[in-house]
Amino acid sequence: MSLEPDSKGTGFKYWAFLSYSHQDNLETRKDGQRGRIRWAEWLHEALENYRVPAEFRDRTTSTGEPMPERFFPVFQDEKELPINADLGESIRTALRESRFLIVVCSPRAAVSRYVNEEVRYFKTLGRQNRIMTLMIDGEPNASFGSKEGYTAADECFCPALRHPLDGQGEVDTTRSDAQEPIAGDVRMKADSAPREATRGDLSLHRRALEQTRLKLIAGLMGVGFDELIQRDKDRQNQGGTGPKPPPSQTSRGLCCSGPDRGGCWLDRLPAEAGGTTRASPGRIRANSRRVRSGQNSCNSKPV
After folding, report:
1. Is 9 a residue whose pLDDT tops 70?
2. What is the mean pLDDT of the segment spanning 31-50?
3. C-alpha 200, offset from chain centre
4. 19 phi and psi angles, rounded to 5 deg
5. CA distance 114 to 223
6. What is the DSSP letter of 245?
7. How far apart are the C-alpha atoms of 248 and 264, rounded to whole Å?
8. Which alpha helices (H) appear in the chain, and where do they start and end?
9. By three-state DSSP, how is residue 63 classified?
């Protein structure tokens, strides 16, 4: 079944559905690793708080709809399903009502049956060309055995991302999927093999995080990534003959030059303090709107 929006987006509630392993949204994981970035929170905040520049508002999105001011709402599932439950109808409904699927990719997500089922089901809706990925850890297609230095344990794409569906809508592991999804990559890439960024890397990783956000936003908007990046650079260069900003601002790079509300969105990442999470006022307001409208009342998955 395929559901396409009309010029007003009828039939769709969410701009994107975030699919991720629960372990990739914890600051302290079950294996004891601490100081981790809550990637689903990061992505949710990054997408919903981006204000589309005015010069793009007269265009249509990649789905053919009028360009919105913000890509709100984005579906993020944080509640738990019983371990023996299949994907609940509430999740299927949210997937049907989502224009795009964005998968947070890691070795943990690659073995999550919930992530795999969300990708598989979204493909059955005829929206394979609306799947985007955010690579946070591991290596894509490592399980094919053709990448030197990587093993199947490093795989970050779930089977439904690596393989097409057969005529019955099931994953056909005998074939590889020739269509590569739009991919954002926030892995740390220094002199060694790519690795997952941690909270301790944020000060050095801001530019990569912001450019990845813009790449995913460009996919939602239906504009070229280079065009959006150039617009951001042009905005920074305006008024270049005036006084220079203090170093604390220039060191933040692109992330503080965007049209977001409330300053640099990276500074509003959830922080660990005595085991608790501090939510930004903007995030609290956004959550309260979703609670009032019943937009986030779906079931979810443990991993």
Report:
1. no
2. 92
3. 21
4. -110, 125
5. 31
6. P
7. 12
8. 39-48, 89-96, 107-110, 113-124, 159-162, 202-221, 225-237, 247-250, 281-293
9. coil
Assess contact for 232 and 214: CB atoms under 8 A.
Answer: yes
CA–CA separation, 177 and 186 (whole Å): 23
| Strands 98-105 vs 131-135: parallel, antiparallel or unpaired | parallel
Q: Residues 220-229: what's their mean pLDDT? A: 91
The answer for residues whose C-beta is within 8 angstroms of residue 170's C-beta and 6 or more apart is: 120
Binned at pLDDT 50, 70 and 90, residue 231 comes out as: confident
* CA–CA gap between residue 45 and residue 72 (Å, rounded): 10
- Residues 165/177, Cβ–Cβ less than 8 Å: no
pTM score: 0.77
Q: Is residue 37 exposed (0-12), middle (13-18) or buried (19+ Cβ within 10 Å)?
A: buried
| Coil, strand or helix at 224 | coil
Alpha carbons 108 and 124: distance in angstroms, whole number:
23
The mean per-residue pLDDT over the stretch 243-251 comes to 36
Give, for 184, the enclosing helix (H) or strand (E).
strand 182-185
Tokens matching residue 69: 């001011």
